[in-house]
Automatic annotation (TrEMBL):
Gene3D superfamilies: Thiamin pyrophosphokinase, catalytic domain. Residues 135-201 form the Thiamin pyrophosphokinase thiamin-binding domain. Pfam families: TPK_B1_binding (PF04265), TPK_catalytic (PF04263). This is Thiamine diphosphokinase. The lineage of its organism: Bacteria, Bacillati, Bacillota, Bacilli, Bacillales. Keywords: ATP-binding, Kinase, Nucleotide-binding, Transferase. Its EC number is 2.7.6.2. InterPro entries: Thi_PPkinase, Thiamin_PyroPKinase_B1-bd, TPK, TPK_B1-bd_sf, TPK_catalytic, TPK_catalytic_sf. The keyword Nucleotide-binding applies.
Amino acid sequence: MAGGPDNYVPELHKWKACDKWIGVDRGVFTLLEQGIIPDEAFGDFDSINEEQLKAIQDRLQDLHVYPSEKDATDLELAVEWAVSKKPAYIRVFGATGGRIDHTFGAIQLLYKSLQENVKVELIDKQNSIQLFSPGTHEIEVRTQAKYVSFVPYAGGVENLTLTGFKYPLTNHYVELGSTLCISNELLAQRGTFSFTTGILMMIRSNDADCL
């Protein structure tokens, strides 16, 4: 849980089955407000006031505290720690909707995690973002995320094939900068997408704030 704007954070009680919660800077206080005590806490805690910091210190004994001036964001330090534990999946909340540079920085962390073969998903009320390496991937419908978009990341994507979608593709080259695969939709409960080279970003969205 990063420290992004509260109005972009989904109802976290829907995700309380997560094995381990990690708070990042102001995100630690956000978790406590929603009745979740994080297992780990990271940050320089420069985005909260003294009262909020005291509330955190009263509830948590071990904090990973870093100086404000450093070569990595608080979120990067937390994600790197989480990736080092080799989990099956990491969900990141509170990383979008505020400063756009922080949002792009969070997307960069998706790429670094992909290199370590750890799946990471950025999630807010309206969107989720993931990166994928070449191969065949299955996707299931989400009733609260109608639209599925695919965007090339760091170069073109070769032989993109979409099955089970409203707008299918077969072995199509999608160049960097293309909007060809924006706002697709699944026709059934499951679909697949595959490609042979490149990195593909998948964004799942809905018109309403309901993810």
